[in-house]
Amino acid sequence: MSARPTFDHELEQLNTDLIKMGTLVEEAIENTITVFQTQDYDLAKTIVEHDRQINDMEKIIESRSLSLMLRQQPVAVDLRFVSTALKVVTDMERIGDQAADIAELLTHMDGSHIYTVIQHIPDMAKNTKQMVHDAIAAFVQLDLELAERVKKRDDVVDDLFNRVKDEVIKILKTDGAPVDSGIDFLMIAKYLERIGDHAVNICEWLEFRLTGEINHTKLL
Amino acid sequence: MNQQTKIHVEHLNLHYGTNHALKDVNMDISEHKITAFIGPSGCGKSTFLKTLNRMNDLIPNVKIDGTVLLDGEDIYSPKVDTTLLRKKIGMVFQQPNPFPMSVYDNIAYGPRIHGIRSKVKLDEIVEKSLRDAAIFDEVKDRLKKSALGLSGGQQQRLCIARALAVEPEVLLMDEPTSALDPISTLKIEELMEELKHKYTVAIVTHNMQQATRIADYTAFFLVGEMIEFGTTEQIFSMPKDQRTEDYITGRFG
Questions:
Q1: What is the least distance, in Å, from the CA of A201 to any CA of chain B?
Q2: pTM of the predicted model, to two decimals?
Q3: What's the gap in Å between the CA of B63 and the closest CA on chain A?
Q4: Which end of chain B is more exposed for a tag (fewer CB within 10 A), N or C?
Q5: Do B233 and A79 touch (CB under 8 A)?
Q6: Is the dihedral of CA A149, B238, A22, A4 positive or negative?
Q7: Residue A144 neighbours by CB under 8 Å, 6+ apart
Q8: What is the CATH architecture of A5-218?
Q9: Residue range A100-126, pLDDT digits in tens
């Protein structure tokens, strides 16, 4: 029996909040991809609204983690959990921001062929969405193997980004090219690529949580 | 700072009658470092501390076997003079225990026992010891007054000064701040940080935050066994033994 039911309860709450925030972030990406496919601009507007909830959740988790540090002075496995909670919320919040940034760009574009012109963007979107889903699941379930798969998938996303870039360059070189859209496509691709990087960060923090190390560098 | 072993403990066992209080303890205590012993009440950490200057010799029915070497010399050898041993390895206890005499005489007591008679020499030792224990400025105007009039925190630093007066090499501290307020506690902790440059310090503490603040190495004891020994960083961040982790995180039921 644990001699610290209050502390355990608070750690449990922190975990629940992280799962809640993870769900919100995943929803944001899913919605963004739906907007890609459907050009549903009302949905795009809700993504921006949705991002506020994610930001609020970040503050709640930061506040809870700092309060735990102040009052419980966690050590060992507890310290690694609370400190990684503080780190991964930043990555999750950025993912939310970037999903909102993509949604905002989409509302400004005239919708023509977003999903077809640049053929590798749908693939990128599908892969980053899976990365975010897996990264959050890995963190919550302490699944290092799943985290490794996320890192591998990041190479795929990076490769896709380079292909998108090549496609955009090709388009921009044609006469009367839609320069604005071309640049927007490139930005969307860059946001997706960054979302993948944040998913990898979450996986690295899982590694630290379980081993005290990140990429073979001992932090604690 | 070198990493030399000051005290080497090997296969140390201690029985109080039929109670096997220390079970095959092995440890190297590094010179000029602070080593903390932690563990629940009754785990043997204080008993272990006391084996390091043979304070347990005074308890009836104690049986000790194994080896404790101070600078390579066996302290349990029949040739060892325990008075001289305790001059080399001083001790500070949980409750400040100044003698009922003046501040000056408290400090001069040990040196006098060891044969120093010169007033000039004693004055020098008293001032130096009080300075080293970071209490000189607070008591310099009341050296001839009773030590019992000092506050608890001052009394404890006086006891540290008294231990330093005989120029020990090792200081053993058994929960030296558990009876003190937070400010006095911080003063003693700061002092230990200073002291380790000249001495080797071993401390028993129930306050794990204290161990994390001051100790270079930490040993975790449980029912007479030393479960884990490592750098304080390692013990409090990545303990290797589940029992250590359960104890330091408070998961012990």
A1: 21
A2: 0.89
A3: 35
A4: C
A5: no
A6: positive
A7: A138, A206, A207, A210
A8: Up-down Bundle (1.20)
A9: 999 998 888 765 555 556 678 889 999
